[in-house]
Amino acid sequence: MTAFTQYVRTIVEDAGYEAGADGSATIEAQHVLIAIAARSETKASQFLCATGLSPQSLRDALNRELERSLNTAGASLQTLKLERGHTATPVTSLGPSVQQALERGVSGLRSGARPAHLLLGILRADIGIVPRALELAGYDRADLLTRAREALAEEC
Fold first, then answer.
1. pLDDT tens digit sequence for 24-53
2. Which residue pairs, CB below 8 angstroms and at least 24 apart, start in 103-112?
3. Integer Cα distance of 150 and 105 in angstroms
4. Which residue in 36, 76, 81, 134 is a FRET match for 4, CA 20 to 30 A apart?
5. Which three-class secondary structure string do you get for the chain?
6. More confident call, 128 vs 75
7. In this predicted structure, what is the pLDDT of residue 153?
8. Residue 81 above 80 pLDDT?
């Protein structure tokens, strides 16, 4: 098993708990991003935290994105009485946003995948919850991606 495969398994397992706490039926890119940020021993986590993207700040940004999306549809968290359940049961199914992030992260590589490629694959998404949440939090996704590539260059 490669180091990348082991890293992805660990992050996906952690993300499964995030997804369960979120009440999601599948593990999505936002859950993986929080799991990456929570692994403080990794360069990807250190980069995220240095840019102000801690696990809690990511959750806050994602909550703002959810509220904004609901408001656009004429609803709110309060009117729908949505609550994020905190279940100890992890979700195990990968959603399409994670599969696409993995594909984006490793496509075109000439050599083996590294842990940083997973984060880069998530940040390269043009559409979806993560880009919208980052924008609402005041981040320029293109700039963030460029800085991530630079910061993680030695790991890639």
1. 999 999 999 999 999 999 999 999 999 999
2. 112/2, 112/4
3. 15
4. 134
5. CCHHHHHHHHHHHHHHHHHHHHCCCCECHHHHHHHHHHCCCCHHHHHHHHCCCCHHHHHHHHHHHHHHHHHHCCCCHHHHCCCCCCCCCCCCCECHHHHHHHHHHHCCCCCCCCHHHHHHHHHCCCCCHHHHHHHHCCCCHHHHHHHHHHHCHHHC
6. 128
7. 87
8. no
Determine contact, residues 140/128, Cβ cutoff 8 Å. Answer: no
Give me the sign of the Cα torsion angle 126, 130, 136, 138.
negative
Cα of first residue to Cα of last residue in the chain, in angstroms, is 18
Counting every residue, how long is the chain?
156
Residue with tokens 């360069």: 43
Residues 6+ apart with CB under 8 A from 61: 133, 134, 136, 137
- pLDDT above 60: residue 85: no
| Structure tokens given for 105 | 């992260």
Residue 108, Cα to own-chain centre: how many angstroms?
Answer: 21
Q: What is the Cα Rg of the chain in Å?
A: 15
Q: What contacts 88, CB < 8 A, 6 or more positions away?
A: 17, 20
